[in-house]
Structures are given as C-alpha cells and as structure tokens.
Amino acid sequence: MSKRQITRWIGGHCESAYSKIILSRLVLQFINPPIFSRNVELIGHRDVCRCRVNESLPEISIENDCVVSNTSNAVYSMKGQAIESSLLVRGQLGRKINARAHNDLCLEGKPKVINKAIYGGVLFANHHGHLITESTARLWPMMVHHSTFEIPDIPILFRIAGRGKLPTKKLAGNAKHLLEVIGIWERVHIVEEPTLVKELIIPHAANSNAQGVHLIFGELLKWVGKQLLQQCEIKSTYWHQKRVYLSRSNLSSKLRKLGNEKKLERILKENGFNIVHPQELSLKEQVNMFSQAREIVGPLGSAFHTMLFSQNNKMNLKYLVHDSPLLKFSSSRTYQIFDELCNADSAYIGCLDRHPLGLTKSQQFVIDLDRAARGILG
User: Fold this and answer.
1) What pLDDT does 263 receive?
2) Is there a contact between 258 and 366 (Cβ–Cβ < 8 Å)?
3) What pLDDT score does 234 carry?
4) Structure-derived torsion over alpha carbons of residues 259, 265, 266, 267, reported in degrees to the nearest 10
5) Beta strands in the chain (DSSP E)
C-alpha cells in the first residue's frame, strides 16, 4: 500500500484533524527509510541506469505529405494516424503526452504548406526543466554536422506547449537564449495552425524522461553549456568550492513548495551553505554555478536539470525527495539517469513528508528537518 493510499484510508476513518496527523505519523514512519545513495544502497540500480544511457545515435525518419499539429504533440499522416517517431514520450511505460493516436485535422480551404522542414518537437517556453530535457532532444544532429541541419533555408518546426498561441518573435527568456546559443533561432518556425509538410525530417528524440537517454544528448548540452559560460559576466571562480542549496521558498504559491523550507535554510546557512533561488539567476549564471560549486543540494525538481550543461565532471549532488520508497524510485528516475549520464556523485535523501491536511501545492509537503540535516551535513 502506498503512502497516498494510507493517507486516504486514515482520512476516511478518523474524525478529528489531530488524530489524522498522529496516526499518519505512526503508520508512515515504518515505511520511511531515511536516505539512499545511488552509489551505495542502490547496488544494482545503478547498472539499470547505465543501461538507460545508449551510446548509439538515434535514428532519423523522413515522412512525406504529413501534417504537423498545433494542438497535439504529434505529426500525423494524411489519414490522421500519429507518426510514432514524432511522439513526446515519458516514463518507464512510454506514456504518450498530449497526443491522440488518430486526429482528424482540418485542412479545408488553403492550408499552410511547407515543402521541406525539420521537426523540432515541443517547445516548453515557460518550463525550465522540460525546455532543457525535451525541447532540445531532437537537435542532436547539430553535433554530428548532419547535412540537412547545415542548410539554413530549411525551417525547424516547433509546437508551443500549452493551448495559448505564442508567435516566434515574442518568445523570450531562456527559451530564446537557448535556441540562439544552439544556433537555430533564425530557423525556428512556430506552428500556429495545422501545417502540411511535403517532406518532413524527424530526428528521433535523444532523450525520453524517465525512460532513457542517448550519449549524444549529453554531449550536445555539455557543448551548449560551454558556449553559455563564455558569455558569463560573473567571474568563473565566483562559485568555486561553495556549497549551494537550491531553494523553492520564493516560488509562486501556485507551484510546489515546502511548508517549512525557511527553517532548513537557516540551518544550512549556519553551516556554510549559500541559499540560491535559481529562478532569479540567468541560465548562464546557473550553468556557472553548477560548473564551479563543491556541493549542490535541494528538493528534487527542474532546477537540477541545469546539471546537463555543467562543465564539472565530478558534481556532488544531494536531492531531497519524498520519503515513500515507491515514490522515491519512480519520481527520481529521470534524475538518476542524468546522474549516470553526467557521472555525478549523487545521493537521494528521503525527508519530504506529505502533509495529510495540505490543500494547496504550497501546503502539500513539509521537511523532516532532522532527517534532512543528517543527510546533508552528515
């Protein structure tokens, strides 16, 4: 029985809020192992992660007379069938994200037609983690100097994640900067209506979160990180040998937060940690930090995906994760694979408790401070 199922059962059998909290604590403490390290307790699991790093190159497909959707994360044949290589896939079970197997696309009148294009996939303009790990996953041919990618007249098609329209020239922040550094910004074409493409080149994704990654994906982002560091105005030694905690405490209340994170920050600050709010740093400043810091700690989340740009081949990372063994393995799988890809020395500290009465995202989790301090400080 999972922690969520136990919490629901307690909620249905206890009347007072106080009794719910006490009973939850008593029951759940028996299924909360405190810490696991990728290099110690995860013996055998690291071999699984290593198998998920594929040294071969992904394939490239060419599709004729197909339709790129502006509402679905897929490319469709003229018969409405989803083309498998175009799908956005996540998870161990290969879950297809926002893509119907069949789509009756409207191409009446005079549809937009492009003779030849490259499929870039989904552009997560407003999500740091998915921008890094998924919006770049089909750009790996840049690293092998694929002939088609070197022809400047061939557009690269992206669909903006979400339902709203966002014209190319209004893209800002990390999304635009990242595409500029990679060198494709002038070729990016945002699909705002179903678009018929006579010849579409589809590079297969070099990364599928929580499923597997190709070695070329790590090489691409490491190269991007090198370009970003060359633009960094901060001295390269600013973060040298510093201990960093990646805080979520200043995030919007609509995002996942930790109820008592400020208390943990005070403990860590007293022990020499620098408290950093990643959303307040530019992408190149974050890359500089991951490349120089001696140790980086924080709640499991997208801020850690900046590690893929890091020039440090011996990163020391500590993730604060949910204390349920089942959730600990499933929710951190993507990070474990990236740890292996980057050869990071990492540990996962099970110290986040789901508050039985938490109603909002900012109330759902609290930190077991003793367990967190023991895992971080030793």
Assistant:
1) 95
2) yes
3) 57
4) 100
5) 35-37, 53-54, 60-68, 75-77, 89-90, 95-96, 112-123, 156-160, 188-190, 195-203, 207-208, 212-214, 243-246, 273-276, 295-299, 316-322, 345-354, 365-367
> Where does residue 96 rank: exposed (0-12), middle (13-18), buried (19+ CB within 10 A)?
middle
User: What pLDDT was estimated at residue 20?
Assistant: 45
Q: Which residues contact 276 (CB under 8 A, 6 or more apart)?
A: 244, 245, 246, 247, 289
Strands 195-203 and 112-123 come out as: parallel
Q: What is the reported pLDDT for 108?
A: 66
Q: Judging by DSSP bridges, how do beta strands 345-354 and 35-37 pair with one another?
A: antiparallel
Check: CB of residue 80 under 8 Å from CB of residue 103: yes
pLDDT at 146: 80
Query: Chunked in runs of 10, what are the mean pLDDT values of the chain (378 residues)?
Result: 54 51 46 41 44 90 94 91 94 83 70 94 92 97 84 92 56 83 93 93 95 95 94 71 93 78 96 95 93 95 96 94 64 89 93 68 77 92
User: pTM for the complete prediction?
Assistant: 0.82
Question: What is residue 172's predicted lDDT score, i.e. its pLDDT?
Answer: 59
How confident is the model at residue 365, as a pLDDT? 81
Q: Indicate if the alpha-carbon torsion angle 97, 102, 106, 112 is positive or negative.
A: positive
What is the edge-to-edge ordering of all strands in the sheet holding 60-68?
75-77, 60-68, 195-203, 112-123, 156-160, 188-190
Phi, psi dihedrals of residue 96, rounded to the nearest 5°? -85, 125
Phi and psi torsions of 275, nearest 5°: -85, 120
d(CA 348, CA 369): 15
DSSP assignment letter at 319? E
Where in 34-193 does DSSP place strands (E)?
A: 35-37, 53-54, 60-68, 75-77, 89-90, 95-96, 112-123, 156-160, 188-190
Residues contacting 59, CB < 8 A, separation 6+: 85, 204
Tell me how far apart the alpha carbons of residues 336 and 329 are, in angstroms, rounded to a whole number.
9
What was the pLDDT predicted at 32? 43
Query: From CA 188, how far away is CA 176, in angstroms rounded?
Result: 10
For the chain, how many helices (H) and strands (E)? 11, 18
Six-digit token string for 302: 């997208």
Residues facing residue 361 across a β-bridge: none
DSSP letter at 234? S
Reading the block at residue 367, the tokens are 């930190």
